[in-house]
Task: inverse folding
Protein backbone atom coordinates (compact mmCIF):
# COMPACT_ATOMS: atom_id res chain seq x y z
CA UNK A 1 0.00 0.00 0.00
CA UNK A 2 1.37 3.42 -0.89
CA UNK A 3 0.83 6.77 0.81
CA UNK A 4 0.11 10.02 -1.12
CA UNK A 5 3.87 10.57 -1.65
CA UNK A 6 4.20 7.21 -3.39
CA UNK A 7 6.10 5.61 -0.52
CA UNK A 8 5.34 2.24 0.97
CA UNK A 9 3.04 2.91 3.93
CA UNK A 10 3.52 -0.55 5.41
CA UNK A 11 6.42 0.61 7.59
CA UNK A 12 6.94 -2.38 9.83
CA UNK A 13 9.52 -3.15 12.45
CA UNK A 14 10.38 -6.74 13.21
CA UNK A 15 10.28 -7.93 16.77
CA UNK A 16 13.39 -6.77 18.55
CA UNK A 17 14.21 -4.16 15.91
CA UNK A 18 15.47 -0.94 17.43
CA UNK A 19 16.34 2.17 15.49
CA UNK A 20 15.89 5.91 15.71
CA UNK A 21 14.31 8.15 13.09
CA UNK A 22 16.77 10.93 12.35
CA UNK A 23 18.54 10.76 15.73
CA UNK A 24 22.23 9.89 15.46
CA UNK A 25 23.78 7.34 17.76
CA UNK A 26 27.19 8.08 19.26
CA UNK A 27 28.99 5.40 21.27
CA UNK A 28 25.70 3.58 21.87
CA UNK A 29 23.95 6.68 23.24
CA UNK A 30 21.15 8.50 21.48
CA UNK A 31 22.09 12.15 20.92
CA UNK A 32 18.41 13.09 20.82
CA UNK A 33 17.97 11.88 24.41
CA UNK A 34 20.77 14.19 25.57
CA UNK A 35 19.26 17.12 23.70
CA UNK A 36 15.77 16.42 25.04
CA UNK A 37 17.23 16.14 28.54
CA UNK A 38 18.96 19.50 28.08
CA UNK A 39 15.69 21.21 27.15
CA UNK A 40 13.92 19.63 30.12
CA UNK A 41 16.68 20.78 32.50
CA UNK A 42 16.61 24.32 31.07
CA UNK A 43 12.82 24.56 31.48
CA UNK A 44 12.85 23.11 34.99
CA UNK A 45 15.81 25.30 35.97
CA UNK A 46 13.91 28.46 35.00
CA UNK A 47 11.01 27.21 37.09
CA UNK A 48 13.30 26.44 40.04
CA UNK A 49 15.00 29.86 39.86
CA UNK A 50 11.59 31.47 40.25
CA UNK A 51 10.80 29.22 43.22
CA UNK A 52 14.11 30.18 44.82
CA UNK A 53 13.38 33.83 44.14
CA UNK A 54 10.04 33.48 45.93
CA UNK A 55 11.81 32.05 48.98
CA UNK A 56 14.49 34.74 48.89
CA UNK A 57 11.95 37.57 48.74
CA UNK A 58 10.10 36.49 51.89
CA UNK A 59 10.27 39.12 54.67
CA UNK A 60 9.37 36.99 57.66
CA UNK A 61 11.21 33.96 58.96
CA UNK A 62 8.05 31.84 59.18
CA UNK A 63 7.26 32.61 55.54
CA UNK A 64 10.77 31.61 54.53
CA UNK A 65 10.59 28.33 56.43
CA UNK A 66 7.15 27.42 55.12
CA UNK A 67 8.01 28.20 51.52
CA UNK A 68 11.40 26.49 51.88
CA UNK A 69 9.71 23.30 53.09
CA UNK A 70 7.24 23.40 50.20
CA UNK A 71 9.97 24.03 47.61
CA UNK A 72 12.24 21.34 49.11
CA UNK A 73 9.52 18.67 49.03
CA UNK A 74 8.54 19.68 45.49
CA UNK A 75 12.16 19.60 44.34
CA UNK A 76 12.70 16.18 45.93
CA UNK A 77 9.92 14.64 43.83
CA UNK A 78 10.96 16.44 40.63
CA UNK A 79 14.61 15.46 41.15
CA UNK A 80 13.63 11.82 41.49
CA UNK A 81 11.60 11.99 38.28
CA UNK A 82 14.36 13.78 36.35
CA UNK A 83 16.97 11.30 37.57
CA UNK A 84 14.80 8.36 36.62
CA UNK A 85 14.10 9.82 33.19
CA UNK A 86 17.79 10.48 32.53
CA UNK A 87 18.68 6.97 33.69
CA UNK A 88 16.22 5.31 31.34
CA UNK A 89 17.00 7.42 28.25
CA UNK A 90 20.57 6.20 27.99
CA UNK A 91 22.45 9.49 28.37
CA UNK A 92 26.07 9.20 29.46
CA UNK A 93 26.98 9.35 33.13
CA UNK A 94 28.82 12.65 32.55
CA UNK A 95 25.78 14.31 30.93
CA UNK A 96 23.51 12.87 33.63
CA UNK A 97 25.78 14.30 36.36
CA UNK A 98 26.01 17.74 34.71
CA UNK A 99 22.23 17.96 34.31
CA UNK A 100 21.54 16.94 37.91
CA UNK A 101 24.18 19.33 39.30
CA UNK A 102 22.74 22.18 37.24
CA UNK A 103 19.22 21.38 38.39
CA UNK A 104 20.30 21.17 42.04
CA UNK A 105 22.13 24.52 42.04
CA UNK A 106 19.55 26.78 40.40
CA UNK A 107 17.13 27.11 43.34
CA UNK A 108 19.83 28.46 45.69
CA UNK A 109 20.82 30.93 42.96
CA UNK A 110 17.25 32.22 42.94
CA UNK A 111 17.18 32.42 46.75
CA UNK A 112 20.21 34.69 46.75
CA UNK A 113 18.69 36.79 43.94
CA UNK A 114 21.60 36.09 41.57
Result:
Amino acid sequence: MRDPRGKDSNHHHGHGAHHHHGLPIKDGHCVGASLRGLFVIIALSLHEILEGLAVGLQNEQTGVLQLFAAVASHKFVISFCVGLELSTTGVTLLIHTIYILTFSLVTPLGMFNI
Q: What stands out?
A: The radius of gyration is 21 Å.
